[in-house]
Structure formats: structure tokens, C-alpha cells
Amino acid sequence: MRDPVSRHRRTKIVATLGPASTSEEVIEALFRAGVDVFRLNFSHGAHEDHAARLATIRAVEARHGRAVGVLADIQGPKLRIGSFRSGHVVLQKGQALRLDLSPVPGDATRVQLPHPEIMAAARAGTRLLLDDGKVRLRVTRCGEAHLDTEVLVGGRLSDRKGVNVPDAVLPIPALTEKDRADVAFALDIGVDFIGLSFVQRPEDIEEARSLVGDRAWILAKIEKPQALERFDEIAVLADAIMVARGDLGVELPAEEVPLAQKRIVRTARRLGKPVVVATQMLESMITAPAPTRAEASDVATAVFDGADAVMLSAETAAGQFPLEAVDVMARIIARVERDEDWRLATDAHRARLPRTSSSAIAAAACQIGEDIGAKAIVAYTQFGPTALRIARERPATPLLSLTPVKATARRLTIAWGVEPVESAPVHTMTEAVARAVSVTRASGHAQEEGEVVVVAGVPFGQSGVTNALRIASTAKRRVADAGKGRRPAVQEAGLVAGR
Questions:
Q1: Which residues does the chain have with pLDDT short of 70?
Q2: What is the rounded distance in angstroms from the CA atom of residue 381 to the CA atom of residue 393?
Q3: Rounded to whole angstroms, what are the CA distances from 450 to 372, 429, 440, 453, 481?
Q4: Is 470 helix (H, G, I), strand (E, B) or coil?
Q5: What contacts 294, CB < 8 A, 6 or more positions away?
Q6: Quick check: 50 and 72 in contact, CB under 8 A?
Q7: Neighbour-count burial of 109, counting CB atoms closer than 10 A to its CB (0-12 exposed, 13-18 middle, 19+ buried)
Q8: Helix (H, G, I), strand (E, B), or coil: what is residue 480?
Q9: CA dihedral of residues 257, 258, 259, 261 (deg, nearest 10)
Q10: Do the Cβ atoms of 194 and 203 come closer than 8 Å?
Q11: How many CA atoms within 13 Å lie on the side-chain side of 314?
Q12: What DSSP letter does each residue of 19-37 carry, written as one string?
């Protein structure tokens, strides 16, 4: 491990790349400032732009010897109105507006809505929110190829503005043809996460899984009320979750969004699925070098809620102060996590575990690590489950995850508190203990003599089982003995649970 960058926090940072953060110098500076996962927004930019940014990220990763995650955020089925003859209209409250399928440019009485699926799902009383909810309509009558609406909230409406339909489950696929091409490209260049936009139902995750397989983790973006209605089913199928508060804040009343965020985070943590809180976290820093007090509180609230990661969007993609935004977010997180109330709240909201031996081992590792003041918990994992089980417990002890799979190390960058380390395979518990002690010392967690808690699944190389726990000393003499192949002189808890 040759990375000189210290994080000093458990909650991870996701940052979006864009015009303000394309050069290698800026990307490396963002990494050094605290970014754990970079987001490539496939709603904007050409494939070659994303490929170039990913190549730069991998170069930074190689220089520092520290895994970096990459999220490909797929646009999804974005719904939009057509165009107007004059480029825009001004709608008045109470007036009638017809939405139809005709491509003829519209006026103040009608405009194209090129989505027959909305007309099929709408009923009298269905609300349509245009331009992020700035203009609001209510359907008064439905036709086969049109909807008659009344303007509830008027205002200026211009060409190709987005449409949200909070009152209906739309019969549309989760992935458009563009999305499918983007997913194929993203997988080919080696991203770690596929962000699935506008998820409505569990079947959307299954559709994405048929394309993605195990080549990346699927991150379900929760931004529609319909997804909340079936969230538990969606969360079980997804690998990770995002509270996407942009569109969610359009389709839900403002007072409901904080409650939805808490519910999503709580459920994801119970299931052991990493969860990201996103959108407008430090929005004012797009144009200002410091956040508002409300934004600082928003980041702190996400940390108190137990989010695995928090995300910056336009702040780093197009803002004037991308490095400052990451630095501020990292400082807020670190300060919250030093607070005694944060640790009390984290322990109080500990998830109720399923009754399995693997979960019991994970919980025991955290308790033992805290009781003995261990320098670190070292979790061996093939594809991530062991590390995620321990991270779900939010241990007070630093958590290192050793894996022989590079993709697993990169995916674990999004998980709370996990410091992933790519490491050669081990074949025995004796070898695993020696490697764990060596990595703990190299990582800087064991500057003084102490103990580490080692967690693994035996036999090694198989996924899905966590059944072994040992306690080892970091004393140099004992590490040397273990490195020579002799039985390490360590304190042992032995196998706590068999297969």
C-alpha cells in the first residue's frame, strides 16, 4: 500500500466529472481531496469523453495504489414535451392546454407530448409536472391520442422541458435503446457500478441484471414515488441504492422527501446494501466558495442517518469550486464522525440482523474489536459480502477488506468504512492472519503494538460464507515468525462457527 492519502472518515464521497473536472490534474486533485467514487453522467457527453475520463481515473488509481470506484449513471427514459413555434409560451393558471402526439410546434393552447404510454396510464385527475414542477397540470379528459389538461400552476414553459407523472406507474422499460448502448459501452470500458435511473418496480432491476450480469454492481436510483411503494423488493434485487432527491423532490411534496430519505437509508442498511444520498448537497458551491449553513446541515444529516456515501453533482461537474466542494464535504463528514452523539446515534440505529452464522460472526468481530481496542478488523472477501456484513454493523474499529479480485476492491469503495485492498489469494488461516497483520501495519493503522481481528470464510476462495474469526498480535517478531511459514504466535479465537 503506497497511498499517502488519508481519509480520516468512514462515510464515502462520490463526485461527478464534467467540463469543470476533465483534466488529469483536476481529477487527481479531487481524489486527493477525498473522492472515493467518480460518477460519469451518461445523460451528457460522448462515449469517448467518458472513456478518456475513466482512463485518467485508472492512472490516478495506479499511481496511488488505492482502489477507486467508477459509477456510470445511465440517463433512463427521460420524458419531455415537444417544441413551441415561438420557443416558449407563458401559461396562466386555470387555462386549458391540450397535450397530443402531433409533432407540429405548439402554442399556448396545445403542445406535443410524444409519449403514448403517458396517455395510456393517465386518468382524469392525474397530475403532470413540467420543467421540474415549475408548471403543473391536471388531466381533465383523456383521449386516445391526446390529454386535455387544466393549468394548476402557470409560468413560462419552453421547448423540450421534462415531464414527471407522480400519480401513475408508466408502462415503459427501465432502459431505452440509448441506455442499452450506454450500458454495453460502460461495461466494456470497465466501470464498477451501473446507475439505473427512474426505477419504478423490481422488474426494472431484473431487466438491467439481464444485461449487466456480474460485470458491475447495479445501483438503483430511487427518484419516483412508485419505487417507494415497492422499495423493499427493489432493494433486495439491487446491489446498491441512491436517494436521488432531484426528481424525487419534484414528484413528492417537499415535506415528504426527508422522511423518504430516512426510510430508504434505514432499509438499505438493514439489508446491508450501500446507500448514497445525492442531489443539491452543496448546490450553492457551484458559484460560491463556501456552502450555506443549511447545506452543511444537510450533509451532516445524511451522515447521522447512516448513509454509506454522499454525492456531489454539478458542484464538481460544472461548478467554479470543485476542489473546495470536496474538501468542505470531507471536513463536514469528519467532524460529524468525531462527535460523541454521532457514535451514540449510529449504535442506537444498528440494524436488526438476520439469524445466520455469517451475520453473527460479523457482529462479533465488531464487538470484539471495540472491546479489545483492536487496531483494525481485517475481512477477507472474494466478492464483497463479508466486508458488507461488517460494514452494516458500523464498527468503531477501522475496517480493512482484503480481496484477490480487483473489481471487488473497486466496488467496495462505496461501502461505509471499508478500506479495500487488493491482495494475492491466501489458502490457509495461518497465511491469512500473517497477511492481515502485515497489511494493517503497512496501512498505518498499527504504528504501535496491538491486535487485529481477522474475519474470513473457510475454505478460502469460495463466496457467500463468513465462518472464521481470529485475533492476532501486530508485534513485529510474531509477524516475522508467521511470514516464515511457522504457526503464528497469535491469540486465537479460532473458528467461531463451522460450515
A1: 1-6, 353, 476-499
A2: 16
A3: 9, 19, 11, 10, 16
A4: strand
A5: none
A6: yes
A7: exposed
A8: helix
A9: 90
A10: no
A11: 10
A12: GGG-SHHHHHHHHHHT-SE
Rounded distance between C-alpha atoms, residue 457 and residue 359, angstroms: 12
Query: How many degrees, rounded to 5, is the angle at CA 306 between CA 300 and CA 307?
Result: 80
What three-state secondary structure class fits 141?
strand
Give me the amino acid identity at 382: Q
CATH 3.20.20.60 residue window(s) in the chain: 12-77+174-339
d(CA 253, CA 376): 44
Instruction: Give 210-213's long-range contacts (Cβ < 8 A, gap of 24+).
Output: 211/175, 211/180, 211/183, 211/184, 212/183, 212/187
What is the strand order of the sheet 376-380 is part of?
418-422, 399-403, 376-380, 451-456, 468-473
Average pLDDT, the chain: 92
What top-level class would CATH report for the domain 357-483?
alpha beta
At 192-241, the pLDDT tens digits run: 999 999 999 999 999 999 999 999 999 999 999 999 999 999 999 999 99
**For 161-230, where are the alpha helices, taking DSSP H only?**
177-189, 202-212, 225-229
Report whether the peptide linkage leading into residue 322 is cis, meaning its omega lies within 30 degrees of zero. Answer: no
In the chain, list all ranges with CATH 3.40.1380.20: 357-483
CATH 1.40.20.10 for domain 12-77+174-339: no
Confidence at residue 98, expressed as pLDDT on a 0 to 100 scale: 98
The reply to whether the predicted model has a pTM over 0.85 is: yes
Q: What is the pLDDT of residues 142-192, one digit of tens each?
A: 998 999 999 999 999 999 999 999 999 898 888 999 999 999 999 999 999
Give strand pairing partners of 72.
Answer: 40, 194
Q: Report, as residue numbers or ranges, the catalytic residues.
A: 39, 80, 221, 279
Q: Identify the CATH number of the domain defined by range 88-164.
A: 2.40.33.10
